Amino acid sequence: MAKKSMIERQKKREHLVAQYAEKRAALKAIIEDKEKPVEERFKASLKLAELPRNSSPTRLNNRCQLTGRPRAYYRKLKLSRIMLRDLGQNGEIPGLVKSSW
């Protein structure tokens, strides 16, 4: 189980990313538009830098839905390898059988 503080920090980041998504997209569109004057593009890049760092989508980590573990994460199932194994062994994931030989 991950620390509660890390899970809460991740939730805060997710909220900030959603909150600033439109503003970030608009500023990035201005920055990437080569037709606009250099001064306007530079001002847009400064405004983008003023936004909170945690509002950037690259700061998000994939975490297990059940334990909050950040490593060994399966995107398709949104679970860590440990929980995938436990749930598979208990028969709670349809079509998944733990192999043994």
TrEMBL record:
Gene3D superfamilies: 1.10.287.1480. One of its GO terms (cellular component) is cytoplasm. Keywords: Ribonucleoprotein, Ribosomal protein, RNA-binding, rRNA-binding. PROSITE patterns: RIBOSOMAL_S14. GO terms for molecular function: rRNA binding; structural constituent of ribosome. Coiled coil: none annotated. The keyword RNA-binding applies. Part of the 30S ribosomal subunit. Contacts proteins S3 and S10. Binds 16S rRNA, required for the assembly of 30S particles and may also be responsible for determining the conformation of the 16S rRNA at the A site. PANTHER family: 30S RIBOSOMAL PROTEIN S14, SMALL RIBOSOMAL SUBUNIT PROTEIN US14M. NCBIfam families: PRK08881.1. HAMAP family: Ribosomal_uS14_1. Belongs to the universal ribosomal protein uS14 family. This is Small ribosomal subunit protein uS14. It comes from Wenxinia saemankumensis. The gene is rpsN.
